[in-house]
Write a structure and sequence with these properties.
The complex is a heterodimer of chains A (about 350) and B (about 375). Chain A is of the alpha/beta class. Chain A has helices spanning about 1-20, 20-40, 60-65, 80-90, 105-110, 125-140, 165-195, 195-200, 205-235, 245-270, 275-290, 305-310, 315-325, 330-355; strands at about 50-55, 75-80, 95-100, 115-120, 150-155. A 4-stranded mixed β-sheet of chain A has the order 2-1-3-4, with helices on both faces. Chain A is elongated and about 95 Å long. Chain A starts with a helix and ends with a helix. Chain B is about 65% helix and about 10% strand. The two termini of chain B are about 25 Å apart. In chain B, helix 2 (about 20-40) crosses helix 10 (about 215-245), helix 11 (about 250-275) packs antiparallel against helix 12 and helix 14 packs antiparallel against helix 15 (about 340-365). Chain B has a 4-stranded mixed β-sheet with strand order 2-1-3-4, with helices on both faces. Chain B is built from 15 helices and 5 strands. Chain B is of the alpha/beta class. Classes of the chains: A alpha/beta (about 350), B alpha/beta (about 375). Chains A and B meet through helix 2, strand 4, helix 6, strand 5 and helix 7 of A and helix 2, helix 4, strand 4, helix 6 and strand 5 of B.
C-alpha cells in the first residue's frame, strides 16, 4: 500500500521535473514574482507628483513648498499659469496642484487668513487625501496658535509600516493558491484528456489511494516552492519579521495547500479538457484571492461578499499567516484559522473525491 | 491570404468553443470579475474597528470620543478593559486600533500643558495603518479647533477642489480601471491554449501538412476570440455606467475603438504564449502570471503610475494596461477625448503594440517539425 502510494508520488514528481518549462515557471513564480511584487509596489502614498503656480514673489510659498520633500513627494514642479497646471493634472502627470494667489504673501503678513487653492486628482484618492492632510498639518504649524496636544502613534508589529514585506508575503500566498489549484487539476485532467484515467480507476488499486497520491505529489511541489520563496525572498530579501512559530506556519501552509488541492480536484472532476480547467480555475481563484482580505480587509467589503468570504480557505490562511508573521499570535489564538482551513478544505476535498473517483 | 480557408477555420474554432460550453465562461468571467472587484475593493478606510480606552472620563475626553463615534471612518467603542487586553484583541485580529486617552487629560489641556494621546495601530496591513493614522490626526485636529474659538485666525485656509471625481466615490476611481484588467485577463486566457492544445494532442500536424500559411493560421485563431469578446466591451460598459453609476464624459466611439485595439493586444499575448510553450499547463500558468498580477499592479487602480519609482515605473510602461487605462479614465471621468495629445500618443502606442505582438506571434510560429 505504502509502496504503491510512493511509486505514484514518485512518478508524478518525475513527470514534473522532466518538463523544464514547468519547473522554470514554478521557480520563477515563487521567486521573481514575489520579489517584483514586494520591491516595486508601494500602496502607501509616496512620490506624489505636486505642481504649483506661484503668482507671489516667493518667500512664504517657497517655505511651504520646501516642506514637501521625499520620500512622500517628488520635488514640486513649477508651472507658469493655471492652464498649464490644469493640463498636467488632466494628463495625469500631476496629482496635486497648488495655486498661490498674488495676495497670498501680503495677506499672510497682515495676519489675515490667506487662501491657498488646491486642485486634487481624485482618481488617485489615497494620494490626494494624504497630501491634503499633510498640507493641513503644515498650515497648523504656521499658525500662531499652538495646541498642547500631541498624538503619539505606535504602529504595532511593523513599525515602519513597511509595505515591501507585506506585499511579498501576500504575493507568495496568492501564488501558492494559484499553483496548488492548477497543478492538481492538471494532473488529473491530463489523464482524462489522454483517456488513461478510466484505466487507472479500473486497476486493482483503491482509487482513493491513487487520488491521494496524485494530489500529495503536487502538494510536495508547492511546499517546496513555499520553502524556496520563504527562505530566499520573503525572509531573505525583505527581512519580514517572523514573530510567531515557524513550524506553525509550515503546518498551516501544509493544511492550506491540501485544501486548495481539494479545489483543484473539484475542478478536475468538472472539467473535461484543459481549456475548461483554465477558465474554471480563474473563475474560482480570482474570487478566492480577492475575497481573502489580502487587498481589502473583509469587514470593509460589501456584506454579501463578507458572507461569501467565509467559504474561502485563503481567508483563514492569510489571516493566520499575517498573525503569525507580524502579530506573533500564540498557538491557542490560531485555532480558528487552523479550523477554518481544515473544515473548508476538507469539504472541498470530500466533494472532489466523490466526484472524480467514480467511474461512471 | 485566402478568405475561404480562414473562414472555414473560424467556423471550426467557434464550433469547438461553443460545444465545450466555454462560451458561457467567455461572458460569465468578465462580469464576475467586474462585480467582485467593483464591490470588493475599497481603498478608502471606513469603519476601522477602534477601541477607545478613556482613563480620564472628563468632558473633554467625552467630546473627543464623540468625534470618533460620529466619524464614518471609525467604528469606535469605548472599552473599559486593560491595555493588555486591548492589544490581545488586535493580536486576534478583532480590532484595528486602540486609542488611549490618559488620566487628567482635560486638566492638563486647560492648564495648557502637553498631553499625549496614545494611538496604537495594527500595521500588519501597512497602507491602511498609514491612512488610519492620518484620519486620527484629522479628527483630533478637528476636535481641537472646534474646542478653541478664534484659533483659525491668521491661519492659511486651504481651498481644495477635487477634479474628475467630486464625490470621491471609490466606484468612480476603481471600476473604469477594472475594464482594462478584465479585457486583459479573459481574452488572453481563452487564446493561450488554442495553439498549444493542438501541439499536445498532435493535431498541429494538420497545420504543418496543409497549405495554410502562418499568417492565416494566426488570423484564424485570433478572429473567433476577438468576435466573442467584442460583445464583452458593450456588456462591461453597461454594467459600469448603469450598475456602478460611473459617469461617462467622453465619446463612445473612442471607447469602442480603443477597446477593440486593446482586445487584439490581449489576444495576441495569449497567442504568443501559445506559440512559444510546449504544454498546456505551462501556457496556462504563464498567462495567469503575466496578465493577472501586472494587470492589477500597473492598472493605476491601487497606485498612480506617476508615483511609482525606478523599476516599477519602467515595467508599468512595458505593459499595455497602463496606456489603455489612461484612455479609459479619460473617457469616463475627464472627457478630453482625442483633443489631448497624450490620448493620441497612447492610442498610437496601443496600435504599435498590437502590430508588434501579432507579427511576433506569426514569426515565432513554426510550420515544420522540430
Amino acid at each position: 500500500m505504502i509502496k504503491i502510494f510512493l511509486s505514484i508520488v514518485g512518478k508524478e514528481l518525475l513527470a514534473f521535473i522532466r518538463s523544464w518549462q514547468l519547473v522554470f515557471m514554478v521557480v520563477y513564480a515563487f521567486s521573481m514574482e514575489v520579489y517584483i511584487a514586494g520591491s516595486g509596489i508601494e500602496i502607501k502614498p509616496r512620490n506624489v507628483a505636486v505642481g504649483y503656480v506661484d503668482y507671489t514673489g516667493g518667500g512664504m510659498s517657497q517655505k511651504i513648498l520646501s516642506r514637501l520633500h521625499s520620500p512622500e513627494f517628488i520635488a514640486p514642479r513649477r508651472f507658469a499659469s493655471h492652464e498649464e497646471l490644469s493640463k498636467a493634472i488632466f494628463d495625469k502627470e500631476i496629482i496635486v496642484g497648488m495655486i498661490f494667489n498674488p495676495e497670498f504673501e501680503k495677506e499672510w503678513h497682515q495676519g489675515k487668513s490667506p487662501r491657498l487653492d488646491i486642485l486634487l486628482d481624485a482618481t488617485a484618492a489615497a494620494q490626494a487625501y494624504t497630501t491634503l492632510n499633510y498640507l493641513q498639518n503644515i498650515a497648523f504649524r504656521y499658525s500662531n496658535f499652538d495646541i498642547p496636544l500631541e498624538i503619539s502613534t505606535h504602529k504595532l508589529f511593523n513599525e515602519n509600516a513597511d509595505n515591501h514585506s507585506f506585499m511579498a508575503l501576500t504575493e507568495m500566498l496568492s501564488i501558492t493558491t494559484m499553483l496548488s489549484v492548477i497543478l492538481t487539476a492538471v494532473v488529473f485532467v491530463r489523464e482524462k484528456e489522454h483517456g488513461t484515467w478510466d484505466i487507472m480507476l479500473l486497476m486493482p488499486i483503491n482509487p482513493k489511494l491513487i487520488i491521494l497520491a496524485k494530489t500529495f505529489s503536487q502538494v510536495v511541489i508547492v511546499m517546496a516552492g513555499i520553502v524556496i520563496s520563504l527562505g530566499f525572498v520573503v525572509l531573505g530579501m525583505f527581512s519580514t519579521p517572523m514573530n510567531g512559530s515557524f513550524w506553525a506556519f509550515m503546518l498551516l501552509s501544509f493544511l492550506y495547500v491540501f485544501a486548495s488541492a481539494g479545489i483543484g480536484l473539484f475542478i478536475a472532476a468538472v472539467a473535461r479538457d484543459m481549456m475548461q480547467v483554465a477558465q474554471l480555475s480563474v473563475v474560482v481563484m480570482m474570487p478566492m484571492i480577492f475575497l481573502s482580505g489580502a487587498w481589502t480587509p473583509i469587514y470593509a467589503m460589501h456584506p454579501v461578499l463578507q458572507a461569501l468570504s467565509l467559504f474561502s480557505p485563503l481567508r483563514y490562511y492569510i489571516e493566520g499567516s499575517e498573525s503569525l508573521f507580524y502579530r506573533g499570535t500564540e498557538w491557542i489564538d490560531l485555532c480558528p484559522f487552523f479550523m477554518g482551513v481544515t473544515v473548508v478544505g476538507g469539504l472541498m476535498y470530500w466533494v472532489g473525491f466523490r466526484k472524480i473517483g467514480r467511474l461512471f | 491570404m485566402n478568405p475561404g480557408v480562414i473562414k472555414a477555420y473560424i467556423v471550426k474554432e467557434l464550433t469547438e468553443l461553443v460545444r465545450s460550453r466555454l462560451i458561457l465562461m467567455v461572458y460569465l468571467m468578465p462580469t464576475m470579475i467586474l462585480f467582485l472587484y467593483g464591490y470588493g475593493i475599497r481603498m478608502e478606510v471606513t469603519h476601522a474597528r477602534t477601541l477607545i480606552i478613556d482613563y480620564d472620563q472628563s468632558r473633554a475626553s467625552q467630546r473627543l470620543i464623540g468625534k470618533f463615534e460620529h466619524s464614518k471612518y471609525f467604528e469606535a467603542t469605548v472599552a473599559s478593559i486593560s491595555e493588555k487586553e486591548a492589544f490581545r484583541r488586535i493580536r486576534q485580529a478583532r480590532a484595528d486600533m486602540v486609542i488611549v486617552i490618559p488620566e487628567s487629560f482635560e486638566q492638563r489641556l486647560l492648564q495648557a500643558q502637553r498631553v499625549q494621546i496614545g494611538v496604537f495601530v495594527d500595521a500588519a496591513f501597512p497602507s491602511r495603518a498609514s491612512t488610519m493614522e492620518s484620519y486620527v490626526q484629522g479628527v483630533v485636529m478637528d476636535a481641537a479647533s472646534a474646542a478653541v474659538p478664534g484659533m483659525s485666525e491668521g491661519m492659511i485656509r486651504l481651498n481644495p477642489r477635487t477634479l474628475f471625481n467630486q464625490a470621491m466615490r471609490d466606484e468612480d476611481a476603481i471600476v473604469p480601471g477594472l475594464i482594462g484588467l478584465v479585457l486583459l485577463i479573459a481574452p488572453a486566457i481563452l487564446a493561450a491554449l488554442l495553439i498549444v492544445k493542438e501541439k499536445e494532442r498532435g493535431t498541429i500536424f494538420n497545420f504543418y501538412a496543409s497549405p495554410i500559411s502562418r499568417g492565416e493560421f494566426i488570423a484564424a485563431k485570433l478572429i473567433p476570440v476577438f468576435l466573442l469578446h467584442s460583445l464583452n466591451i458593450f456588456i462591461l460598459f453597461l454594467w459600469v455606467v448603469y450598475l456602478f453609476e460611473v459617469p461617462f464624459r467622453g465619446s463612445f466611439l473612442l471607447y469602442w475603438g480603443a477597446s477593440e485595439l486593446y482586445l487584439i493586444i490581449s489576444i495576441s499575448i495569449g497567442i504568443l504564449i501559445s506559440v512559444i510553450t510546449r504544454t498546456q499547463i505551462v501556457a496556462m500558468v504563464l498567462t495567469i502570471i503575466i496578465t493577472i498580477i501586472p494587470g492589477f499592479l500597473y492598472s493605476g487602480i491601487i497606485m498612480p503610475i506617476s508615483s511609482m519609482s525606478g523599476m516599477s515605473q519602467i515595467e508599468a510602461h512595458m505593459f499595455p494596461v497602463m496606456y489603455y487605462n489612461h484612455i479609459l479614465y479619460d473617457i469616463f471621468l475627464v472627457g478630453q477625448g482625442i483633443s489631448s495629445d497624450k490620448t493620441e500618443i497612447y492610442l498610437a502606442v496601443l496600435a504599435v503594440y498590437a502590430a508588434v505582438l501579432a507579427v511576433l506571434g506569426t514569426l515565432l510560429l513554426r510550420k515544420e517539425l522540430r
